[in-house]
Design brief:
single chain, 3 helices
Length: 67
């Protein structure tokens, strides 16, 4: 697999760090639940509209929320 190039110790450290980051990210979303809905709405809008320039679309989408 992808981790075969690493020693057992390095694999353990990578796995631990991955879990730590995952927990931090999960907690952040728990503190800011509106972020999940915001990202969902943006991605849905992007997939429905399929903009030629997704970066411009992103700028316009989030700038429109500043209101």
């Amino acid at each position: 697999g992808r981790m075969d190039a690493f020693s057992i110790e390095d694999q353990a450290a990578i796995t631990a760090r991955t879990q730590q980051l995952s927990n931090q990210h999960r907690r952040y979303f728990e503190v800011h639940p509106q972020l999940t809905q915001l990202l969902h709405d943006f991605l849905t809008n992007c997939l429905v509209n399929k903009p030629e320039d997704p970066f411009q679309f992103c700028r316009e989408y989030f700038n429109s929320l500043k209101g």
